[in-house]
Design brief:
single chain; 66 residues; mainly alpha; Arc Repressor Mutant, subunit A; flat
């Protein structure tokens, strides 16, 4: 039950280097996620998602394992 219109694909407007710099700046507490978004041009949700997945992988987020 779609509208019949083709979907618009959004392309990334930032490079992997910009994403890495933004994540590093937030992790080192040089700036907030919102400030990193403005400085590096990376969406806030993308920065948050990368940091969240890193912390989850390290076991810093979630239920403690027994």
């Amino acid at each position: 039950m779609g509208s019949g219109l083709p979907r618009i694909k959004r392309t990334r407007t930032y490079s992997p280097e910009q994403l890495a710099l933004a994540v590093e700046a937030v992790n080192s507490k040089q700036c907030t996620i919102r400030a990193a978004q403005e400085m590096f041009g990376v969406p806030r949700s993308t920065i948050f998602g990368v940091i969240y997945r890193m912390k989850k992988k390290l076991g810093l987020i979630g239920q403690p394992k027994q």
